[in-house]
Amino acid sequence: MDPDGSEQDPEMKKYSSVCVGREEDIKKSERMTAVVHDREVVIFYHRGEYHAMDIRCYHSGGPLHLGEIEEFDGRPCIVCPWHKYKITLATGEGLYQSINPKDPSAKPKWCSKGIKQRIHTVTVDNGNIYVTLSNEPLKCDSDFYATGIFKVIQSSS
Ligand code: FES
């Protein structure tokens, strides 16, 4: 049986879900990496929710699986270990702080650059974690580092 037609259509096959591990394991480690249809992703387990995204940072290809999770403006973000860019776990938006130099009393305000990191879908079935790659047509900056010569991340980088 092939309910999503992925066996017939190789293009569709790229978007079939792939089992990447066990729920009990990621709940302990709170993150894991996986290769899903030739694309490297990181999966985070944070405050009871799963999030998956391209493993390399949209800015310059930094290893997001080695970053820390922090909250900015009430939004959980992965902070890239290379240049500290902040990426929301839920949407892949790049956050930055802006200030109005003409207003001395103004406090810096958190703003979004828009979606920069490609987010993928995580589902759990019978204790197994599945990732389905995003087929969102929107171009994400992280796509550049998810393909070609950049796509193989070194285990210790
Ligand atoms: Fe991630 Fe520069 S590579 S912040």
Automatic annotation (TrEMBL):
Domain Rieske residues, every copy: 17-131
PANTHER family: FERREDOXIN-RELATED, RIESKE DOMAIN-CONTAINING PROTEIN
Keywords: 2Fe-2S, Acetylation, Iron, Iron-sulfur, Metal-binding, Phosphoprotein, Repeat
Coiled coil keyword on record: no
Molecular function (Gene Ontology), one example: 2 iron, 2 sulfur cluster binding
Pfam families: Rieske_4
Top-level taxon in the UniProt lineage: Eukaryota
Cofactor: [2Fe-2S] cluster
Protein known as: Rieske domain-containing protein
